[in-house]
Recover the amino acids of this structure.
């Protein structure tokens, strides 16, 4: 066995790892932390349940890695949308883009983001603590977006920035619980959220 | 044993039932569906774990009853607040009162309401279905409050009533996940939610 075949076997095992995580994200999104069974996760990934332990130390270790990716991807989707606007964009346009991207990524594209939101209130305390620490960076980013809007007057200053931020994230995150494909697309729901939130924040005449 | 002593024993067992449910609500609020242990629930209620099965058929049956009470109490708190305004109140004042009452009941007063919100996304599918059926009545009530505001123009008509309703409930429900006693009281958080939502909904000039 030379270096080349070792490389291939490493890559194969990485691919299986990703397949298991993709499957876990899908099952967690549907069933939540308590309801997600390793047997269903393994089945969807084309593995025997026991073989999952070759890739992940425990059920919780697998779930925690899915949630880490969920936070990272959600954060990336938002940051990319905001940065795509370029440096000339107004703070309010940046905030609008962030809301659109976050809600669309929650509702449409990404099992990881939905799985993460769904599970956050359900996992054991120590996992939850580590997860919240990870999310702090994402939280800072939202805080910055809102602070910029308060600085230029597009969000009125008497609103309490961190309460408003958490109310907004609640609006966006809870949508995972009620949204079903049908009458309205994720984009249309996101439009309503932007309309509601931005008008809710603007200065009174 | 006459009828009188039978009555007393029925009442005693009802009181223990309520004590178990109160304890379960507290533990579920803190730990969610997956994390709530019967041993902790029993302990707080001053019972041995096995004795819980004298009052409830199963762990899930106990949790389901807590969640039923949670919906009923949340609904009652909102309806009472709205009805206390009297029949002359404007639709917008009725909606404001409902938001205040719902958020305050979620954050401050009631383990049952918080436990219910916390657990809703976590319980097995069949429990979740029954729970959502129960909540439909509460949902209709919010729909009516918003429809009245759209009818008199205090909520702009281009907002999609049911999306706006679910975004609002998300804002109010998710607060259970992040609110900690400290800087702001539940009432102050509720004020911010009212301010944000009502301004977000009003007609544009």
């Amino acid at each position: 066995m030379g270096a080349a075949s070792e490389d291939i076997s490493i890559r194969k095992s990485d691919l299986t790892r990703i397949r298991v995580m993709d499957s876990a994200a899908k099952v967690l999104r549907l069933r939540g932390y308590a309801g997600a069974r390793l047997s269903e996760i393994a089945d969807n990934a084309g593995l025997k349940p026991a073989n999952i332990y070759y890739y992940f130390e425990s059920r919780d270790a697998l779930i925690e890695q899915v949630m880490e990716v969920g936070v990272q991807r959600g954060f990336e989707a938002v940051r990319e949308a905001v940065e795509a606007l370029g440096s000339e964009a107004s703070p309010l346009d940046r905030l609008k883009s962030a809301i659109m991207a976050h809600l669309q990524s929650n509702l449409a594209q990404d099992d990881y983001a939905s799985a993460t939101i769904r599970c956050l209130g359900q996992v054991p305390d120590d996992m939850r603590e580590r997860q919240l620490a990870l999310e702090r960076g994402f939280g800072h980013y939202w805080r910055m977006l809102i602070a910029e809007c308060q600085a230029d007057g597009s969000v009125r200053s008497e609103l309490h920035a961190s309460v408003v931020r958490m109310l907004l994230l609640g609006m966006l995150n809870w949508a995972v619980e009620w949204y079903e494909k049908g009458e309205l697309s994720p984009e249309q729901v996101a439009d309503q959220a932007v309309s509601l939130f931005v008008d809710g924040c603007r200065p009174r005449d």
